[in-house]
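[[Local backbone shapes]]
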Amino acid sequence: VKMAGDSRFPDVDTDGSEKNEETEIVVNVGGVRQVFYGDNLNQYPETRLAELINCLSGGYDSIFSLCDDYDPGKREFYFDRDPDAFKCIIDVYYFGEIHMKKGICPICFKNEMEFWKVDLKFLDDCCKTHLSEKKEELEEIARRVQLILDDLGIDASESRWKRCQKYIWKFLEKPESSYPARVIAVLSFLFILISSIVMCVGTIPDLQVVDAEGNRMEHPTLDSIETACIGWFTIEYVLRLISSPNKLHFALSFMNIVDVLAILPFYVSLTLTHLGAKLMELSNVQQAVQALRIMRIARIFKLARHSSGLQTLTYALKRSFKELGLLLMYLAVGIFVFSALGYTMEQSHPETLFKSIPQSFWWAIITMTTVGYGDIYPKTTLGKLNAAISFLCGVIAIALPIHPIINNFVRYYNKQRVLETAAKHELELMELNSAEGKAANSKSELEILAREGKEDPFHSSRLKVSHSDTFIHLLSEEKHYRTRLQSCK
């Protein structure tokens, strides 16, 4: 053990007479040696390397409080740390900023910076973005794991009504929780498809019937199927609302608003049909009912609740507002330019179809989007040349922003799959550690291991899962083991 005043360490400056600016030290991090000078390190006196310069006059107690080992003959400090991260961190002494190399875990790099007492403000903005993304991923994994644990756990102190609410919520909102929940999810999906098909089939004239006044109306059988579907949607929505943990958040959620819009027209139409005739003319009632029936198309959006692909597509579009804005801007500029040129070039033709520039907007739209209905077209040579150029420009304008939108979709879809897999692995690790803990606390197993002279699995597991500098407190209730979340590996 190295003690202060030991004759084996004569090079320590106990009087502090040596100038810190002229001091040269050697730092060995994971087998990689680096030489530093005091004038560089003292630019940031609050960092650990700068403290090494100043601790030389404080004796070996202060030295070993900062490093793992010290060689006084070489003035070499030893650290059992990541050498790759250290090479990036020391850039702050020479360039005033830090860039994280590709392949280094952002969370582990952040912990390394905290160990070397370097402030995160020196980390470059691009690297901070990677760090924040990694934090969000870990928080999302922790949130998913916590939700699963909440579903598995039963609080005996809760009332019977609270337990019933949780069961109904899990039964209707989480199909993966049980086999009956999956059956309910499939039934809900089928009801959505059936109601959408009935809405379309009901508009076929051959399947409609004529009432006493000679007006066409949907077939009674289709009406019955529609009523059954609306009844299912109503019961499902009411049960989910009653069992929701946060009813205000539930009511304001976009998908739940879609659910309301899917069932509300049915009841409003029913009310107008039976009561509206007394308050307004029958023709006005029928027009209002027809207008409300159009709102039934909102139920097709209910499929997004049961389709992760549709949810991913919605998120990708939300993340691609900038690209979509560029697309609309390109098209708007092209439409204005080519419609004005087309109108000007076609004025010389006696049978021109371009009567005005606003009317030419329609021609420019269907030409640049490669639709081409043929209801309006150029007849002069210059007009046809203008149409060819507008067609080519439209193809280029549409193709340019598509690639970033597809990348956003693929990135988010892959990310969701990775998070889902990571959450499952976390649960497996928690079950494994829980089983090891129970086995370790069993006296009979300890006695058998003692007689056989084997190592105690409890203590060995404790060594394996001991907390280190890479520990991340995400699941605060589970502190007796180190999981994939906490090691970030």
Q: What stands out?
A: Residues 1-19, 454-489 have pLDDT under 50 and may be disordered. Strands lie at 24-29, 32-37, 69-71, 76-79, 209-210, 216-217.
